């Protein structure tokens, strides 16, 4: 797929920082990384130069002079920091349109600005825990994997949004195997890494220290890793998580597989807080998003940092060019 096909950027929550970051990203990227913003132009900062498109083939030319926009009329205008449930259906429609564009081949990838789940539930009865599950439903796939990626680190949490006390029960051999296999597959097909190297963290401190601090590593994690065929990828571990993320350790793998949310997110947010990108693996199309939320407290003030959105758009373009 041509890298000059634009990335489809859904607007996200219109009362958050998404609209102003889209403008800043366009001002920074210009024609270097063409994207089309999907949403209601009324929600963009006042004075934004807009090029409303009927044909995405016009995106590259348009973005030299204005923000390319695929217009969707929402139910209401918006005020920064103040959600309006009336706009929930428009926010959902923008995501659906982005997916439709990439599935039809008009866009190379999907990038999603952050949503506010409560506003979507209140205004449209949104039935999904978040973006990722909704995208999986739109794509018709049952299992997807979240990766956080930057120039310094790629890391995948096997379990995500649950209490720490739930992790040992929800972390199963099948779940870990699927996470490893999906990650390895997408590193090959989306990132162009011919033979991915994966490093798997232990669940317990010091990877259990021979059973003194937990037996999961002995009872099933180590045997599972030994069973995996390593013809298309290499997997090592389980490694003590506290020694996996220094520079020399990171040089030995292409992605780290963590066991739970904070084990994955703390290192990447420490190493590269502003440049981290959320990537959904296992979809039949490329999807990225900035690794931050709607930031209602600073919305409309012009101080939001566009670095993560810019990184997400660049990575979407690069990954989209692989397919």
From TrEMBL:
Co-factor binding details: Binds 1 divalent metal cation per subunit. Can use ions such as Zn(2+), Mg(2+) or Co(2+).
Oxidoreductase in keyword set: yes
Keywords for this protein: Cobalt, Cytoplasm, Magnesium, Metal-binding, NAD, NADP, Oxidoreductase, Pyridoxine biosynthesis, Zinc
EC category name: oxidoreductase
Cofactor entry: Zn(2+); Mg(2+); Co(2+)
GO aspect biological process, one term: pyridoxine biosynthetic process
Annotated a divalent metal cation binding sites: 161, 206, 261
Domain of life: Bacteria
GO cellular component terms attached to this protein's record: cytoplasm
Pfam family, one: PdxA
Binding site for substrate: 131-132, 269, 278, 287
A molecular-function term among this protein's GO annotations: magnesium ion binding
Main location: cytoplasm
Subcellular locations according to the entry: Cytoplasm
Pathway entry: Cofactor biosynthesis; pyridoxine 5'-phosphate biosynthesis; pyridoxine 5'-phosphate from D-erythrose 4-phosphate: step 4/5
Family statement drawn from the similarity comment of this UniProt entry: Belongs to the PdxA family.
Family annotation (HAMAP family): PdxA
Subunit comment: Homodimer.
Job of this protein: Catalyzes the NAD(P)-dependent oxidation of 4-(phosphooxy)-L-threonine (HTP) into 2-amino-3-oxo-4-(phosphooxy)butyric acid which spontaneously decarboxylates to form 3-amino-2-oxopropyl phosphate (AHAP).
Miscellaneous section: The active site is located at the dimer interface.
Protein name (database record): 4-hydroxythreonine-4-phosphate dehydrogenase
Organism for this UniProt entry: Pseudodonghicola xiamenensis
Classification lineage: Bacteria, Pseudomonadati, Pseudomonadota, Alphaproteobacteria, Rhodobacterales
Gene symbol of the encoding locus: pdxA
């Amino acid at each position: 797929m041509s890298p000059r096909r634009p990335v489809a950027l859904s607007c996200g929550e219109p009362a958050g920082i998404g609209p102003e970051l889209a403008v800043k990203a366009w001002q920074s990227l210009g024609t270097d990384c063409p994207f089309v913003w999907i949403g209601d132009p009324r929600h963009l900062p006042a004075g934004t130069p807009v090029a409303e498109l009927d044909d995405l083939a016009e995106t590259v030319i348009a973005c030299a002079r204005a923000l390319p926009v695929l217009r969707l009329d929402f139910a209401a205008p918006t005020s920064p920091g103040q959600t309006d449930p009336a706009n929930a259906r428009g926010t959902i429609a923008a995501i659906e349109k982005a997916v439709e564009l990439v599935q039809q081949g008009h866009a190379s990838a999907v990038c999603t600005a952050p949503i506010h789940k409560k506003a979507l539930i209140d205004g449209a009865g949104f039935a999904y825990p978040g973006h990722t599950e909704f995208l999986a439903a739109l794509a018709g796939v049952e299992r997807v994997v979240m990766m956080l990626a930057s120039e310094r680190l790629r890391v995948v949490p096997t379990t995500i949004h649950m209490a720490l006390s739930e992790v040992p029960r929800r972390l199963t051999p099948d779940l870990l195997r699927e996470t490893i296999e999906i990650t390895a597959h997408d590193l090959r097909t989306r990132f162009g890494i011919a033979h991915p190297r994966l490093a798997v963290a232990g669940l317990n401190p010091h990877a259990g220290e021979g059973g003194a601090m937990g037996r999961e590593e002995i009872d099933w994690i180590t045997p599972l890793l030994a069973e995996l065929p390593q013809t298309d990828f290499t997997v090592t571990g389980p490694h003590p998580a506290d020694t996996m993320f220094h520079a020399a350790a990171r040089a030995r793998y292409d992605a780290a597989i963590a066991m739970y949310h904070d084990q994955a997110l703390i290192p990447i947010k420490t190493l590269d807080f502003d440049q981290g990108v959320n990537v959904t693996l296992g979809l039949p199309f490329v999807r990225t998003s900035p690794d931050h939320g709607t930031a209602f407290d600073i919305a409309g003030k012009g101080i939001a940092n566009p670095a993560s959105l810019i990184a997400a758009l660049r990575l979407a373009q690069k990954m989209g060019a692989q397919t």
